[in-house]
Design a protein that fits this description.
Layout (H helix, E strand, L loop, with lengths): L1 H19 L3 H14 L29 H4 L13 H9 L1 H6 L7 H8 L3 H12 L4 E5 L7 H8 L5 E8 L7 E9 L4 H9 L5 E2 L2 E2 L1 E4 L3 H15 L10 H19 L4 H9 L6 H14 L2 H13 L6 H13 L3 H13 L6 H13 L3 H14 L5 H13 L3 H13 L6 H14 L2 H13 L6 H13 L3 H13 L6 H13 L3 H13 L6 H14 L2 H13 L6 H13 L3 H13 L6 H13 L3 H13 L6 H14 L2 H13 L6 H13 L3 H13 L6 H13 L3 H13 L6 H14 L2 H13 L6 H13 L3 H13 L6 H14 L5 H16 L6 H14 L5 H7 L6 H11 L6 H24 L3 H8 L1
Antiparallel strand pairs: 1-3, 1-6, 2-3, 4-5
Length: 928
């Protein structure tokens, strides 16, 4: 018995050496297999000639491959039949087999296997490898297609699949034979009926139809086992064609891994593959998907189908990924419908890509739909698809839904990866929730994660968004202490934060730190530096920076030129603005609607409305359509001029173009109506807003309150403020200032004083414009003492007076100096000294008016005259001499009194006009 065993094993080994001797590569594999076989248990390496007793078909999970190692004394009947999975895992456990070798198997177990009747073993193997409902079809025409074969054999029953073996030389033709697999409960009887038609004529050929005997499947299994054992005589290729194709495939994979940016090299490597398979086509579709090249991905997909290769779920998923990256979700869904029609299964990866695609285009509703379908269809979800759906809701400010999804992940036992923490922090940054963002940051550290540059970048972005640049700099120091270096994005965010504060010095300091760290600025950083130069007014350096970009091989974008164009247009230098516009075109940048809007915004700020409107014609010639921002900017320009007719004209054009009408558009209309004093028209605009279900925000209420304040209707203004509180609309400093202005216009200074107290009780401190409005009110009430007291309160609050404050206060004091007490004159001297210290100079009209008031107080000049004349323009003496010698009749007593009255009211109205326009900053923010 032992001799039989030894002779059997020796013959097997000698056969292996003989089969591998013809191929050096095979010989190496053979020697390697001999070395491994000497150290592995015998029952894990059975000779190919040994057979196992017939076993029942496996209907449950495959046997545990580690069962034999755990219990080597099992009876032979319990030992599973040879399985490639078992052999594969056993080879992986070679180290454990050496460290803990299993005891030798009893000899009689091997003898029982060897003495079994060969007929029964072979029969069981045939039954094991034979597929139910599968027939062999031979002598087919080489040009025949799958659908034609399926159409003919469908008469015997439903067909599950048709397999045509491709020819080696011509990939468009088959090798003349194939297989038909019937499906359904009648698959076996359908195959039996089809075999009865053996020998029929089919397109000029006599077909050979037989039941599948399992030889092909068994041959593949044996070959696979031989490969795993290293004893196959097919370790080499049948011909040079196989070896060449395998080399080409390897070259393609290498280029995809090492040179993905070299598109030409990838395409060239793919084209060198003769008769590419589904795997190679899938690699190319995936490559194009990562690049977002959905058109080439689709072309490769159709090329694969034209060669008769049916796409798998993996290939379809790659194509859907290409459309998702290209943000064409309609085509992605058409691929999904095609998959369902063809019966191709949608995997978890497919659903994740679809959800992620809708998240990128900002459609959380569609993302939710496919997420729920995945949840109902698949047995379990993973962190990737949860991350995509959470990202979709965070970008749309649906933080409650995002928090609920995180809770679902925790309840499902899915570990939350670091990327989801970052997504949640970014979502809280968008909504400005500083507290919860810090909570997520602390929780991230509690869970054992080490904050990365992305984590700190989320915090920096948060503090910059909420206007706390000092906090952002503290986070920057934390990064350095943690040993984490800034990247280009974090530097750009910090610089952008200083630009918002117009802190040019610190912006350039951060830029210098970036250069010291050895980083090379990118296009985004160069754009920020150009914005800083434009903010400083150093336009030549801004233009030079563009040239520096080009020297560093960076291509400027339209965003690069926009701040320069806008700055020149805002200062009224349209010649230079158009020069930069032409420079942008010569640099290869195509003007966009945003570029034209920069020209229009600059012209509107300079009130050059005719030139601003002419830009619309330039846009039409360039083939660029005006957008919502374009028309809203022009409407704001006419609103500043109080031209209601023009504002409504462009509002009509706005609607005719089919553009969205939002709250900013209505703000421009309301401002035009309120500037012109047409409050009934303003009320009609608010009614249309209500009809469109556009809620009134703080800006809208401020414009309406300011409109009633211009008319001195304090009751309407107060009623609007009450509505704001009822609707939970935020009441800000501009709202209170407008109400104070309404009280001052109505002469109700007691109500104005109460408003100031109510404002301070609400935690809102008056600003310079609020005090200026109040000083103007006391001046109109002929109470300069109260105006002077209000001025002292403003200085005590730490506010710095501006020209409008001095104008109102001094005019009020001078008008009452002749009839008021002596302390008014002391106040005039005190205010004059402060103006001299601040080196303030009034305009010629104000100097003339104040000079007439001084003439009434000091007929021949005096201390007040000498002090106040130091604030007059330098050419005041020449102007005074001219008016005295040439126009002496102008100073007639009666006429002088009339002119005093005119100049007094005119100067005050012009002064308060600047205070009523406190919405200018607000309007500028809406333009951008």
């Amino acid at each position: 018995m032992e001799a039989a065993v030894s002779s059997l094993s020796s013959s097997s080994c000698s056969g292996c050496r003989w089969n591998n001797s013809s191929n050096p590569k095979s010989l190496r594999h053979s020697r390697k297999s001999e070395y491994s076989s000497s150290s592995s248990p015998e029952h894990l390496r059975r000779p190919k000639t040994l057979s196992t007793p017939p076993s029942k078909p496996v209907t449950s999970k495959p046997p545990n491959p580690l069962r034999i190692l755990r219990n080597p004394n099992l009876p032979p009947s319990a030992v599973p039949s040879p399985n490639p999975l078992v052999t594969h895992l056993s080879n992986k456990l070679w180290l454990s087999g050496k460290l803990n070798p299993a005891p030798p198997q009893p000899v009689d177990a091997i003898v029982r296997v060897t003495v079994d009747e060969p007929g029964s073993a072979n029969a069981s193997q045939e039954n094991e490898f034979r597929q139910t409902g599968k027939i062999f079809v031979g002598n087919l025409p080489v040009w025949i297609k799958k659908d034609q074969v399926a159409e003919y054999f469908r008469q015997f029953g439903p067909i599950s699949k048709v397999i045509l073996i491709k020819g080696h030389n011509e990939i468009d033709n088959n090798a003349g034979f194939g297989f038909v697999i019937y499906g359904g409960p009648t698959a076996n009887s359908s195959a039996t009926k089809a075999v009865e038609f053996d020998g029929v004529e089919f397109h000029g050929r006599i077909l050979t139809v037989k039941l599948d005997d399992g030889r092909r499947s068994k041959g593949k299994m044996d070959e696979r086992e031989s490969w795993l054992r290293g004893t196959s005589d097919m370790l080499g290729h049948n011909s040079g064609w196989y070896g060449e194709r395998e080399t080409r495939r390897s070259d393609l994979q290498t280029i995809l891994d090492t040179q993905p940016e070299n598109w030409q090299a990838v395409v060239s490597a793919f084209e060198k593959i003769n008769k590419p398979s589904r795997k190679e086509f899938g690699l190319m579709i995936n490559y194009y998907a990562r690049r977002g090249d959905m058109h080439r991905a689709r072309g490769t997909f159709e090329n694969m189908r034209a060669r008769g290769i049916e796409p798998s779920s993996h290939v379809y998923t790659n194509l859907i990924h290409a459309y998702s990256v290209g943000r064409d979700m309609d085509e992605a869904l058409s691929c999904v419908r095609k998959m369902k029609e063809e019966g191709v299964e949608l995997t978890l990866v497919t659903y994740s890509i679809i959800v992620g695609g809708f998240a990128k285009i900002g459609n959380p509703e569609a993302a939710d739909h496919w997420f729920f379908e995945a949840k109902e269809t698949l047995p379990a979800l993973n962190a990737i698809i949860y991350g995509n759906i959470i990202y979709a809701h965070c970008q749309k400010r649906n933080m409650n839904r995002a928090e609920a999804l995180v809770q679902q992940m925790e309840e499902a036992g899915i570990d939350i990866p670091m990327s989801i923490y970052h997504t949640m922090m970014d979502g809280y940054t968008i909504v400005g929730d500083e507290v919860k963002s810090i909570i997520v940051f602390n929780r991230l550290k509690e869970c054992g994660f080490t904050p990365s540059v992305i984590t700190y970048g989320c915090l920096i972005n948060l503090y910059i968004k909420v206007g706390k640049i000092h906090k952002a700099m503290e986070v920057s120091k934390m990064m350095k202490l943690a040993g984490i270096q800034h990247n280009m994005k974090t530097y750009s965010m910090v610089i952008n934060g200083f630009l918002k504060l117009k802190d040019w010095a610190n912006a350039f300091a951060v830029f210098e730190d970036l250069v010291k760290d050895g980083m090379k600025p990118d296009v985004v950083l160069y754009n920020n530096i150009i914005t800083a130069f434009c903010g400083m007014g150093n336009m030549e350096r801004a233009i030079q920076t563009i040239k520096d970009m080009q020297k560093e091989k960076h291509r400027p974008t339209t965003r690069t030129f926009m701040p320069i164009i806008y700055t020149f247009a805002r200062t009224g230098d349209m010649r230079r603005a158009l020069e930069i516009f032409d420079m942008m075109r010569r640099s290869g940048c195509v003007p966009t609607v945003h570029t034209f809007n920069a020209l229009i915004v600059g012209l509107v700020e300079k009130r050059q409305m005719e030139k601003a409107v002419s830009i619309l014609d330039e846009m039409s010639l360039a083939g660029v359509s005006a957008n919502q921002h374009t028309y809203t900017t022009i409407m704001h320009g006419y609103a500043e001029l109080g031209d209601t007719g023009k504002a409504f004209e462009y509002f009509t054009k706005h609607k005719e173009e089919g553009l969205e009408v939002d709250v900013y558009t209505f703000e421009a209309l309301l401002k035009a109506c309120c500037k012109a004093g047409r409050m009934q028209s303003a009320l009609a605009v608010t009614r249309e807003m209500a009809a469109r279900k556009i809620p009134r925000n703080t800006f809208v209420y401020n414009i309406l309150i300011d409109g009633w304040a211009r008319r001195g209707d304090v009751w309407e203004a107060a009623d609007l403020m009450q509505q704001m509180k009822q609707e939970n609309v935020k009441v800000d400093i501009h709202t209170y200032t407008s109400l104070v202005n309404a009280c001052c216009k109505a002469g109700d200074m007691l109500w104005a004083t109460r408003t100031i107290k109510e404002m301070e009780a609400a935690g809102i401190k008056p600003n310079v414009k609020t005090y200026t409005t109040l000083i103007h009110g006391w001046a109109r009430a002929s109470l300069p003492e109260k105006a002077l007291q209000c001025y002292e309160e403003m200085k005590a609050a730490g506010l710095k007076p501006d020209k409008a404050v001095f104008h109102c206060l001094m005019t009020s004091l001078l008008s009452r100096a002749t009839v008021a007490e002596e302390h008014v004159c002391a106040g005039i001297l005190s205010v004059s000294r402060e103006m001299i210290e601040l080196q303030l100079t009034v305009d010629m009209g104000t100097a003339v008016h104040w000079s007439r008031c001084l003439r009434k107080i000091e007929r021949t000049g005096g201390e007040l005259t000498e002090a106040l004349q130091q604030t007059f323009p330098p050419d005041w003496n020449a102007h005074r001499s001219f008016t005295t010698n040439e126009n002496s009749h102008y100073y007639d007593q009666d006429e002088t009194e009339d002119n005093d009255s005119y100049h007094h009211h005119h100067s005050l109205d012009s002064g308060i006009e600047n205070q009523d326009d406190f919405h200018d900053e607000l309007d500028n923010s809406t333009w951008f």
